[in-house]
Amino acid sequence: MKSPLTSVALFHLGPVPITEAVVATWAIMSVLVCGALLASRRRRLVPSSTQAAFELIVETVDSQIRDTMRAEPGPYRAFIGTLFAFIFVANWTTLIPGVEPPTAHLETDAALALLVFLAVIWFGIRAGGVGGYLASFAVPNAIMIPLNFIESVTRTFSLLVRLFGNVMSGVFVIGIVLSLAGLLVPIPLMALDLLTGAVQAYIFSVLAMVFIAGAVSEAKPTQDPSIERTKS
Amino acid sequence: MNWLAAVSIASAAIAVSFGAIGPALGEGRAVAAAMDAIARQPESANVISRTLFVGLAMIETMAIYCLVIALLLLFANPLLK
After folding, report:
1. How far is CA B42 from CA A60, B35, B56, in A?
2. How many whole angstroms separate alpha carbon A216 and alpha carbon A211?
3. A67 with B47: Cβ contact below 8 A
4. B contacts of A4 (beta carbons < 8 Å)
5. DSSP A7
6. Residue B79: partners with Cβ closer than 8 Å, 6 or more residues away
7. Please, which residues bridge with residue A190 across strands?
8. DSSP letter at A183?
9. Which tens digits make up the pLDDT trace of B40-50?
10. The pTM of the whole model exceeds 0.95
């Protein structure tokens, strides 16, 4: 049986090996970018049905950001929305026969978790400056500095393992059941896999929002951090 | 097959089976509490189910960690190289 932890190179681009996950990632990215460009091309005050559908998506993302972060969604919409859209589409590429979701490989998830890690730092610095962000590590007091550092690394790691484990285990279980039982048996498992994929995409973006909101509210100099901390 | 491989396979099975117990109990308690809360206050069902989903994913991650450990033992075992 093929190990789920390794990835096989499809072809080589010079010295760089190109895996299946990379090809799938670029395909998803181009589909998302082209879809977004096409959808935002002819915007009108009275929306067409396509524009209304996409406005519904954007408003849903906005309301989720407002509910979770208790902030105006303007600066976060692009990052959180793209994160959700990419992971959602990537998890659901398991619907296409022969395509493994790129999130079932460790590298894609590591890249996404690294993006969240960097975004937390960036939004934290944007909210309170470098000093304010660094001071947020000493909340509630200086003894917590090593713990807060470790937490910011381990939560990124758990974000990575969570997405990888959930998506990969779905693919893996379907493979095992298919080899044991036969053609039509894994269909209920695939339906469950779609639900898991959607929930994991949602959870990944909610956790990214929670981390960013925590960094922003702790880095802000004017507020009392002990009140804000309870919601993260 | 040497004894190291046999021990690895057995410990992978033990990791998954025992690692699933705790998250199963935890998820059961979380869902029961959420059902209770929704039955008391149906108007806040949206907020409760959203936090429930996030919490369930958090709990489920513990089982997923065990699965990842088991797969590491089976497919990327450094002792068997």
Report:
1. 21, 10, 20
2. 9
3. yes
4. 71, 75
5. -
6. B4, B8
7. none
8. S
9. 999 998 889 88
10. no
Say how far apart CA B49 and CA B64 lie, in whole Å: 22
What ipTM was reported for this prediction?
A: 0.73
**A3 to B76: CB separation less than 8 angstroms, yes or no:** yes
Strand partners, A16: A13
| Phi, psi angles (nearest 5°) of residue A186 | -75, 5
Are B68 and A164 an interchain contact pair (Cβ–Cβ within 8 Å)? yes
A196 token code pair: 């898991």
Q: Are A218 and A228 in contact (CB under 8 A)?
A: yes
State how far the Cα of A87 lies from the Cα of A155, in Å rounded to an integer. Answer: 18
Q: Say how many residues make up chain A.
A: 232
Q: Quick: pLDDT tens for A170-206.
A: 888 888 888 888 788 888 888 988 988 998 999 899 8
Q: CB–CB of B72 and A161 under 8 A?
A: no
**Inter-chain CB pairs, A–B, below 8 Å:** 42
In one-letter notation, the amino acid at residue A90 is: A
